Hints:
single chain, alpha/beta, six-stranded mixed beta sheet, five-stranded parallel beta sheet, 20 helices, 29% helix, globular, binds beta-D-glucopyranose
Amino acid sequence: xxxxxxxxxxxxxxxxxxxxxxxxxxxxxxxxxxxxxxxxxxxxxxxxxxxxxxxxxxxxxxxxxxxxxxxxxxxxxxxxxxxxxxxxxxxxxxxxxxxxxxxxxxxxxxxxxxxxxxxxxxxxxxxxxxxxxxxxxxxxxxxxxxxxxxxxxxxxxxxxxxxxxxxxxxxxxxxxxxxxxxxxxxxxxxxxxxxxxxxxxxxxxxxxxxxxxxxxxxxxxxxxxxxxxxxxxxxxxxxxxxxxxxxxxxxxxxxxxxxxxxxxxxxxxxxxxxxxxxxxxxxxxxxxxxxxxxxxxxxxxxxxxxxxxxxxxxxxxxxxxxxxxxxxxxxxxxxxxxxxxxxxxxxxxxxxxxxxxxxxxxxxxxxxxxxxxxxxxxxxxxxxxxxxxxxxxxxxxxxxxxxxxxxxxxxxxxxxxxxxxxxxxxxxxxxxxxxxxxxxxxxxxxxxxxxxxxxxxxxxxxxxxxxxxxxxxxxxxxxxxxxxxxxxxxxxxxxxxxxxxxxxxxxxxxxxxxxxxxxxxxxxxxxxxxxxxxxxxxxxxxxxxxxxxxxxxxxxxxxxxxxxxxxxxxxxxxxxxxxxxxxxxxxxxxxxxxxxxxxxxxxxxxxxxxxxxxxxxxxxxxxxxxxxxxxxxxxxxxxxxxxxxxxxxxxxxxxxxxxxxxxxxxxxxxxxxxxxxxxxxxxxxxxxxxxxxxxxxxxxxxxxxxxxxxxxxxxxxxxxxxxxxxxxxxxxxxxxxxxxxxxxxxxxxxxxxxxxxxxxx
Length: 761
Ligand code: BGC
């Protein structure tokens, strides 16, 4: 599989996900015809902006521009790495200078790419939305669209036409440090939110991207999120059927929405480094889907083929392996020498010229689709940049994303008369509200955005004169030292607790991103647990606020809290949102987009195999295999209550081409208005491979006034109930299915088996 050499003709074997546009193709051919081999090689290489900057990191160095763009003819630049953000004007000017040089010396525009993950990273003055994990918790597609639109707009405003987003690694292992970057553990939720974000980022016509849209790079293709070790960038082992059914399906949805580029999983799946996996890169994507977009590597990952993975002996072999497997652009951040390696490999025929031309066409096609030949830079006003309108969307999204997990004796909302002690290392930190990819890679909001409120500041504004503060435990402020905590303040916090009526304990994690977030113990850190235990000994009620990128285990301290709220990473307005929710001015409506595990040796996803665990002892073969989690996927409370009745499916029996019409009555049975995320699951009772216990198949969010009833309806194509069988094909099998929603269930029967390559899912 690793040594596939001549994969030049990627003739589609099935559907064609992006229709070809004649004018686009003609322009690509016209440019390609006039290119030298050196120019072609340059188009296949991407370097970091660092290699063009002078020693101040502020300005471009003309000599470096001459070398990298003039001499090596490098076709793409990315990011600012040195934990530093610039203003929009500064970034825009930098890109304009690079473009001027590219047009003058190569005659082909450069493509600049940025890691916009939840807003304008690397810009000092743009907007941020809650991280993707929070957007998933809203179960409201509107917010994925809003964020996509704002991100595209603000990226374009900085003269950048390409983002490395959305992230769509399934967050199915809570130990992995990047689960907050994506939309949680479920493939359908991931697919729905990522598709909406993709459409908002790119617009509806992938052949003509406008000046308020950008190209996406859906990532990381694929299987990156479940490393066996739990550590970032380490090998995953994924059953072949799961790879297609769960990991590929969300990407498929985005390809069908026109996604123009993909970034490759830095690690390996089933022993094959993804950067050398021709079956996935060329077979599944370029051939099966007739996809004519561009594949970019992740950071220095061609080098990893020989330095880390030992599947290549040296750089030359690694480049050959990657490009022949289907890589079109090599992110080789520090060194343009890669251009010469490509030229040499093309001259020797080790990379066929047809493969080189195919890769170059894909790069050029992207640039043409983005309109960069006509407008390498653009003069356009972007009055909405960093606007109040985006800020208000971000606040609304934060409010809908924070999840009320526990609320004993109705301790929340606060009455407004309580004396509140605010404590914990996350109480007065803006960077922890944002997480990584915020202003800088490791997250540096406190330095860049002092105008926003921390949790403490928001509560002080909301409950004037009622709030006292003692951190108890503090994080080391050195970004890479996020585990180190100073616990010398616990005694002071305890003393303050005696004077308060209620304790708001804000615990969780400091910011991290990628490998610096690796860790050896999923438990919440010992110091923070110690703080909560000491506070509980005062007998004062505790409201535990979890501000964390992944569900840290809290089994021993959860019983000590009256209420628990998981705010995850809600960004700059997350403190204000929390204060608004705790005061009862707004109601909670977020639900967990992942399973919150309780025990370190029992890390679950909600869609486990029926033979893996049980909900109860009944029928259990293995008496240890009882599903015992802290909170299940989809759990989330409200200040009101909702009753579900009358679940109906329009047909008791269905065929593979049918659409199931599902309806359910949802009534607000409490005293305040609220929003409810309505989740519909299916269970395949008998299948030729051991079935998942249940799978999310549809969701919607409704707003209901007290006493109001809404009939919520869904249309579910029967093909969505299919699974991937042992032969790698999608199968819907004759037999019984249970459709469930809100604790209700209805049995239906599929009357015919059908097998597909890529169905409508
Ligand atoms: C990350 C990617 C990111 C790239 C460029 C890598 O280390 O894995 O997600 O897009 O850097 O910054």
